[in-house]
């Protein structure tokens, strides 16, 4: 594979892959926050801490 | 007897004699470079935990006659050679007589097999509170934007003639993440490990100098003064506990080649959040991280032999590393400006500059710059979120890169 093709492939797939990975993580975090919302106990722990 | 004394004295001055040869002059330059790194670490507080051992390792390996990076032969092979007796090849017999230098032993123990960067990552995970990121997960996108410099620099490195894997290793300086740069370089361009590591850590320390002019040039005064609301606590303990497991599984499935990096940082973070292994968490963020940092620094310094370091490629690596970090900031702030426009002026674009892995320096720079233009503005928690995103983003970018390389059949 020549250098230009390699560089462009890495750039497109690399940037796209990084954004995609982090977008999936954002979505996962949002699901986690919905499944396990902040409870009164969490709030108390925070106040004590 | 007089002759013996004379020859003995000559032996004592062998190092000094070697210093004043052509090869010795190169050693002198490297001794100066080592001294400069130590000076920067001790007197200027530039990443002292890394630059002091790197500088000292550089001194040790460049003293003429130093055999500290000599590769001897392992005990098993020595026994085989002994059994072969005179039938063993002469070159191997000669090697068998020499012991492996102590810096080479440290290098083999933790750099050649990528162990030290991963131990440091466990410590970083144990030290990091991803809370600010979890409060506003969308800010993780800044962590992706902040990695674009890696890929743009890769194109530049290829354009100026670096082979594929060397170009990838150099570009990872743009992750602004020392252990990631060392991890990738030690696997795919070990001959460039010294300059890449020194460039990565030097530029990380220079973030407060490199970023502000770029941030100012790319934003208007109104944009810089954009106020951000206070961060409200919205994340439960369970979410914080499950976060490292979810990140490990998701990134491991997408980019398995980066699993050691992400797995190590998330192991440290899981130990911190679960609270059940306080001793291990404390050991990871203190003793283990400190010992690994010391060995890592000395071993990297030891790769800075004159022959390997004093090359035009070293200057090119430093230039490309600088460009990479500038491009990270440019793309991060540009991404912030897009967000500012799309949100109707609710996102301060300066926060985009914090989407790199230099933690918490980049977040502090954003806070300081934001307050310069609006004294009532407190960007720190938002910037910390973006900065945590940068830490995850840098590892994700490296993981994606390695997996693409594997997909292309280059590794």
UniProtKB/TrEMBL annotation, chain A:
Membrane spanning residue stretches: 6-29
Protein name according to UniProt: Uncharacterized protein
Keyword tags: Cell membrane, Membrane, Transmembrane, Transmembrane helix
Broad class of where this protein is predominantly found: membrane
InterPro entries: Na_pump_deCOase
Organism of derivation: Rhodoplanes serenus
NCBIfam families according to UniProt: OadG_rel_small (NF040909)
GO biological process: sodium ion export across plasma membrane
Superkingdom per UniProt: Bacteria
Assigned GO CC terms: plasma membrane
Localization: Cell membrane
GO molecular function: sodium ion transmembrane transporter activity
One Pfam match: OAD_gamma
UniProtKB/TrEMBL annotation, chain B:
Source domain of life: Bacteria
Chain coiled-coil ranges: none
Membrane association type: Multi-pass membrane protein
GO molecular-function term, one example from the UniProt record: decarboxylation-driven active transmembrane transporter activity
Primary location class: membrane
Cofactor field: Na(+)
Gene Ontology CC, one term: plasma membrane
Keyword Membrane: yes
PANTHER family: OXALOACETATE DECARBOXYLASE BETA CHAIN 2
Functional description taken from the UniProt entry: Catalyzes the decarboxylation of oxaloacetate coupled to Na(+) translocation.
Recorded family membership: Belongs to the GcdB/MmdB/OadB family.
This protein's name: oxaloacetate decarboxylase (Na(+) extruding)
């Amino acid at each position: 594979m020549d250098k230009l093709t390699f560089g462009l492939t890495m750039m497109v797939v690399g940037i796209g892959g990084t954004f995609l990975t982090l977008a999936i993580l954002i979505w996962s975090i949002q699901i986690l926050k919905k499944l396990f919302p902040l409870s009164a106990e969490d709030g108390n722990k925070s106040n004590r801490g | 007897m007089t002759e013996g004394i004379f020859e003995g004295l000559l032996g004592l001055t062998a190092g000094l004699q070697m210093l004043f040869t052509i090869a010795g002059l190169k050693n002198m330059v490297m001794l100066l470079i080592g001294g400069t790194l130590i000076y920067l670490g001790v007197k200027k507080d530039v990443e002292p935990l890394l630059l002091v051992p790197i500088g000292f390792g550089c001194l040790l390996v460049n003293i003429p006659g130093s055999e500290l990076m000599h590769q001897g032969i392992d005990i098993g092979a020595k026994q085989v050679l002994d059994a072969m007796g005179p039938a063993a090849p002469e070159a191997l017999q000669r090697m068998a007589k020499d012991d492996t230098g102590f810096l080479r032993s440290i290098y083999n123990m933790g750099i050649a097999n990528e162990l030290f960067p991963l131990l440091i990552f466990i410590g970083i995970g144990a030290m990091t509170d991803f809370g600010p990121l979890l409060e506003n997960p969308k800010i993780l996108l800044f962590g992706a934007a902040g990695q674009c410099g890696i890929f743009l620099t890769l194109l530049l490195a290829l354009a100026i003639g670096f082979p594929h894997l060397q170009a990838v290793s150099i570009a990872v300086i743009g992750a602004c993440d020392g252990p990631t740069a060392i991890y990738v370089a030690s696997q795919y361009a070990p001959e460039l490990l010294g300059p890449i590591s020194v460039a990565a850590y030097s530029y990380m320390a220079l973030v407060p100098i490199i970023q502000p002019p770029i941030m100012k040039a790319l934003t208007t005064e109104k944009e810089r003064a954009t106020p951000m609301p206070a961060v409200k606590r919205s994340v439960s303990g369970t979410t914080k506990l499950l976060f490292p497991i979810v990140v490990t599984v998701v990134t491991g499935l997408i980019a398995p080649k980066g699993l050691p990096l992400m797995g190590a940082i998330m192991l440290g973070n899981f130990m911190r959040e679960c609270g059940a292994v306080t001793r291990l968490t404390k050991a990871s963020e203190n003793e283990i991280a400190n010992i690994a940092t010391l060995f890592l620094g000395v071993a990297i310094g030891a790769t800075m032999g004159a022959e390997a370091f004093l090359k035009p490629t070293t200057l090119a690596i430093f230039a490309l590393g600088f460009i990479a970090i500038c491009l990270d900031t440019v793309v991060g702030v540009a991404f912030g400006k897009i967000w500012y426009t799309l949100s109707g002026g609710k996102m301060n674009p300066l926060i985009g500059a914090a989407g790199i892995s230099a933690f918490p320096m980049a977040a502090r720079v954003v806070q300081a710059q934001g307050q310069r233009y609006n004294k009532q503005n407190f960007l720190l928690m938002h910037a910390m979120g973006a900065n945590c995103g940068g830490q995850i983003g840098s590892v994700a970018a490296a993981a994606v890169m390695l997996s693409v390389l594997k997909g292309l059949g280059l590794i």
